[in-house]
Design brief:
The chain has a domain of 66 residues. It is mainly alpha-helical. It has six helices and no strands. The longest helix is centred in the first third of the chain and has 31 residues. The chain is globular and about 45 Å long.
């Protein structure tokens, strides 16, 4: 199987499947553009929210609840096609609702003993 994969990248193999190769290379470059656009989108939002990207990503990988929620929101807003400015405003509103208005919000007073 490995030999087959290695031979696929020879010039002869590429000329035999040139339309497939061209289709894959176009898809790959388009995918790269989309990923770069999404990364810039996330970076711009995090900077506006006063987060350092590297610290945020580290905490996200460590399953920090706040970063997971924030990353989920950013992904949903990106998927919906919201602009960076709209996303920032919506995240500010959602964050305030989560922190201040929920019954078990992060800023609610603790239960009496």
């Amino acid at each position: 199987m490995l030999h087959f994969l290695e031979s696929r990248y020879t010039p002869f193999a590429l000329t035999q499947s040139l339309p497939l190769y061209l289709a894959l290379s176009k898809t790959s470059s388009m995918g790269t553009y989309i990923e770069q656009h999404k990364s810039k989108y996330i970076s711009d939002i995090l900077q506006a929210l006063h987060h350092k990207v590297d610290t945020f990503m580290y905490n996200l990988v460590q399953y920090s609840p706040y970063e997971i929620i924030l990353y989920t929101w950013i992904n949903k807003l990106y998927t919906k096609g919201k602009t960076t400015d709209d996303a920032i405003q919506l995240i500010y509103k959602a964050r305030n609702i989560l922190l201040l208005n929920s019954q078990r919000g992060l800023c609610s007073s603790p239960d009496p003993l």
